[in-house]
C-alpha cells in the first residue's frame, strides 16, 4: 500500500506489511541518523542491506544489532575512495534493487574536497554522481535510485559557471542549496536515462530532523534559521514548524524506494511521503522549485559534472 502517509508517518508505518525478503539495498551514510534508521527499517523487513560509510568503526558501532547488514568504506569527499568502493562492488557483481544516496554534509565552512571541489557540492553531489553512475549497471531492472535532497534546494539553483565559488562570495546555505538542487537534478536525468530499462530515480526531502547533519551550524545560525522558518509559517498561515523524529525523517526515503509505485515518483521530488507540489513562493516551506525539476538544467548539470570529475557516463 502506497498511502495515505504524511509528515508524521514513520519507517515502520510505511513498511507495515511489506516483505523485503530477497531484496538487496544499498544505503550510503550509515554511521548516524537517517542512514542508520533507513538500514534498520529495511533490514527489519527482510532486506539484505549494504551500508556505506566514511568511518567504518563509527558505522559498526551505530549499526550493531542490525541483521543482514554488510558495510563498505566510502568517503564521498574523495573520488579515489568513491571509485575504489564502486569498483569493488562491480567486481563482486551482486545486483541491487534499490540504492539510497543518503549521506551528506550541511552548511559547512568553506573548504575543498580531496579533488578540489567545494565541500558541499563535491560531497553531496559529485561524490554520489560518480559512485552511483559507476554502479548503475548493478541496479536491477525494476530497481530504483533515491537521492536525499532537502527543502534547502530552495536556497539556490546550481551555478554551472562557478560551482566551486571561485568568483562568488561563499555562503554556507547557498552552497548547501546548490548541492541539494543538484541532488534533485541528478535524479531527474538519471531517471530519464534509465527508465527504458525499468530503473527509476527520485529525490526526497526527509524533513527537519535534529541529526549530526547540523553539526557545523553554530547556535546563532541555528536560531536564525528557525526564526526565519517561523516567520515564513506565520506569513503563509502554514502550521508551525516542528522537528521530525529520525524514524519520521527516514520514512520518505523508504516510501520512495520500496513502497510508492515507481511511475508515481520517477523523476520527481517527494516530501512527507508524497510527491511534492510545485512552489515558487519563497515564503512557502513545502514544495519544489521549478528549476530543480528542469530537464534541460538536469542535462546541463550532468555534462558539467562529467567535465568536473573527468569521467563520462
Terminal CA distance reads: 35 Å
Q: What's the average pLDDT?
A: 93
**CATH topology-level fold name:** Rossmann fold
CATH class reads: Alpha Beta
Give the structural class: alpha/beta
CATH superfamily: NAD(P)-binding Rossmann-like Domain
- What are the secondary-structure elements, in order, as H or E? HEHEHEHEHEHEHHHEEH
Number of domains: 1
Radius of gyration: 18 Å
How many helical stretches? 10
Largest sheet: 8 strands, mixed
Under the CATH scheme, the architecture is 3-Layer(aba) Sandwich
- The fraction of residues assigned to DSSP E strands is 5-15%
Assign a percent range to the helix content.
40-55%
Choose one word for the global shape. globular
For the biggest β-sheet, the strand order reads: 3-2-1-4-5-6-7-8
Unreliable spans:
none
Number of DSSP strands?
Answer: 8
Task: Explain what you see.
- Helix content is 41%, strand content 14%.
- It is an alpha/beta fold and 313 residues long.
- The protein has one domain (11-217, 246-307): NAD(P)-binding Rossmann-like Domain (Rossmann fold), CATH 3.40.50.
- Helix 3 links the parallel strand 2 and strand 3.
- The longest helix is centred in the middle third of the chain and has 23 residues, at 172-194.
